[in-house]
Amino acid sequence: MIDRLPRAGLAATALAVAAIGAWLLWNFDPSAPGSLFPPCLFRLVTGYYCPGCGLTRMLHALVHGDVARAASMNVLALAGLPVLGAIALDTHYDRRLLRGRMRSIVYAGRFWLVAVLVFGVLRNLPWAPFTALAPI
């Protein structure tokens, strides 16, 4: 029981932070002029989309239930949300949700590094179908 207390506190904190974030995203539009959400510094400096560009707008659309718009903002992050949820549940509870090859891929940092870098390059290519990866 004592062993679970720190994990329970961490889970409660994560849930509170997620709830506050969802409230902010529900009430404030990141695309609006003068938004309290900062713009992407990488895009401001380089003119290119970083792998995280559109993430805040994707979450805003998702909180409002607009999955199609969320996918148009950052499809990699949208696809990664269920994976992050599975990792969190897999780590927090003593049962294994992810098994075998899937577990080894999901927990491989090298896989995610390559996926994020490739996504970052592809979304900046100026021809179809890669232009669809740029946040709109």
Question: Topology, please?
Answer:
Blueprint: H1 4-27, H2 41-46, H3 55-63, H4 67-73, H5 75-92, H6 100-106, H7 109-122
Q: Could you explain how this protein is built, in words?
A:
The protein is mainly alpha-helical. It has one domain (4-133). It is 62% helix and 0% strand. The chain contains 7 helices and no strands. It has helices at 4-27, 41-46, 55-63, 67-73, 75-92, 100-106, 109-122.
Could you list some keywords that capture this structure?
0% strand, 136 residues, globular, mainly alpha, single chain
Number of helices: 7
Q: How much helicity do the residues have?
A: 55-70%
What shape does the CA trace take?
A: globular
Question: Would you tell me the overall average pLDDT?
Answer: 87
Number of strands: 0
* Gyration radius over CA: 17 Å
Low-confidence stretches: none
Number of domains: 1
Please give the largest β-sheet. Answer: none
Kindly estimate the percentage of residues that lie in beta strands according to DSSP: under 5%
Quaternary organization: single chain
Structural class, from secondary structure content?
Answer: mainly alpha
In whole angstroms, the N-to-C terminal distance is: 48 Å
